[in-house]
Amino acid sequence: MPQATPIPSDVVARIARVEERGVNATLAFEADTVLQQARALAERPETTALDGLALGIKDNICTLEYPTTCASRMLEGYRSPYEATAVSRLKAAGGIIACKTNLDEFAMGSSTEHSAFGRVEHPLVPDRVPGGSSGGSAALVAAGAVEAALGSDTGGSVRQPAAFCGVVGFKPSYGRVSRHGLVAFGSSLDQIGVFASSVTRAASIVGVISGRDPSDATCRDLDPVQPALERRDLRGLVVGFPEEYFPADLDPAIRAACDKTIRALRDAGAAVKAVSLPHAALAVPCYYVIAPAEASANLARYDGVRYGNRVPSHELFALYRETRGRGFGDEVRRRIIVGTYVLSSGYYDAYYGRAQIARGKIVGDFAAVFDDGVDVLFTPTTPTLAFKAGECVEDPIAMCRTDVFVCSANLAGIPAVSLPIGRSEGLPIGGQFMGAALADELLLDVAHVVEGLIDGAEEAR
To answer: What's the pLDDT at 48?
Structure first.
């Protein structure tokens, strides 16, 4: 007997209600497409791991059901001839691709205000930003439209919006999840990550999408991430909190929520101690040299000849100029210019070469702490609460600072997760845990315990 249609009967209505509110979290969503997938699943005789779970997919991850635009006029209407490995694995496990989610164009931004198709509103406070670049995915999960969504995390683009919106956001170790079908931004930094309403749900998604993939040469030859989630306490674990991540100007409410979390860690049996990551201050400048450099190379292919919507011209260089000038938004053009500059003759060693040296020092800092007996690190996810829309758009430095606690995990290639640990005036506060490279299972186990200890909806005091 075929099983009943496994998709929740109201998921289509839930997504539609969010969009009717003007959140603008989706770029592609069709009820018929969702229901067709549900009917196909209902014909399967076997039970599926995800049991018809409806999922949002960030629109820089290739799908067959919907276009993949990267929120850019350059790829408006583009349909990929193949789907990402992560997407195909979700479908094989019974997941339903419910919609494509809005993002900062080509994943370049920290507020989802740089989409060519309009900004995403915060799901709780409309005049605030949901974070970025995966703001649409975070907003949909926070609004209860879907229970989980995929995002991409190049410099914190899963964890920062998860913190702003009050959901779980997990970035795996580099190489644990295939990047095949993820439109490249910074190839040494990019990683597909997961948003979910709980750590248990996030772990179930990660278990499906992770593991070796011959289609991605950077994917590690390892089994899928499968945390036990059986810990009841944290006895025997050492949790470090880096002093550099708790500056004097940290938002008082965030500091209070972190202090409460540290007390809960101690009460659960963990040994909590202060540690140092001495090169932490280099993370943001290092990231904003390496990421634009890699982006300038990756986006060179969008010229109207190989890829991208073409602006016709009778002269080749005019075609390139007009296609890229009209196709890319201001933020993408800015990063391409920066990246091209730091890779140019005479400046490569002064900028890109030095950034790679700094990256090595950051990697070394993390390795030294974990080699010294620390199991996981705890930090704030963001230095501030979700800021008002438009507040940082004209100030790239202020926007960059929102990534100060999250981009280092990408530079080091380590796993990291953001959890809701409190609220201030109704706005969520996120706490971040980071683990040693490839220690994804341990990190999720710890996050699962902490989730049970902390009331993420409680006002910070």
So the answer is: 83
What the block records as the tokens of 282 is 């280099």
- Which residue type does 292 have? P
Q: Which residues contact 145 (CB under 8 A, 6 or more apart)?
A: 11, 14, 15, 17, 18, 25, 56
The residue with tokens 């919907």 is 66
Do the bridges between strand 148-152 and strand 54-58 make them parallel or antiparallel, or are there none, so unpaired? parallel
Predicted pLDDT at 2:
43
pLDDT (tens digit per residue) in 302-331: 999 999 999 999 999 999 999 999 999 999
Give the single-character DSSP code of 106: G
Question: How high is the pLDDT of residue 6?
Answer: 54
User: Which one of 58, 100, 171, 260 is the catalytic residue?
Assistant: 58
Structural contact between residues 50 and 128, judged by C-beta atoms closer than 8 angstroms:
no
Token pair of 151, please? 């995002």
* Residue 236 one-letter amino acid: G
8 Å CB contact between 111 and 163: no
Q: Letter for the amino acid at 355?
A: A
Q: Which is nearest to 413 in space by CA: 85, 106, 191, 245? A: 191
Taking a C-beta distance cutoff of 8 angstroms, is the pair 311, 322 a contact? yes
d(CA 205, CA 199): 10
| Residue 8 pLDDT | 58
Calpha distance 403→411 (Å, rounded): 12
pLDDT of residue 421: 98
Q: Where is 291: in which H helix or E strand? A: helix 283-298
The distance of Cα 131 from the centroid of its chain, to the nearest Å, equals 10
d(CA 106, CA 34): 25
Q: Is 111 a catalytic residue?
A: no
The total of other beta-carbon atoms located within 10 Å of residue 378's CB is 23
Q: Classify each residue of 338-361 as buried b or exposed e, where b means 16 or more C-beta atoms within 10 Å of its C-beta.
A: bbbbbbeeeeeeebbebbeebbee
What residues have CB less than 8 Å from 71, skipping those under 6 apart? 27, 59, 60, 102, 103, 104, 105, 106, 114, 115, 116, 117
Is residue 133 flagged as an active site residue? yes
Per DSSP bridges, beta strands 416-424 and 271-275 are: unpaired
Catalytic choice (88, 110, 111, 157): 157
Ranges of the chain with pLDDT below 70: 1-9
Question: Pick the catalytic residue: 133, 152, 210, 408?
Answer: 133
Q: pTM value? A: 0.96
CA 430 – CA 79 distance, rounded (Å): 35
Q: What percent of the chain has pLDDT over 70?
A: 98
- Give the closest residue to 115 by CA, choosing from 132, 97, 98: 132
* pLDDT at res. 54: 96
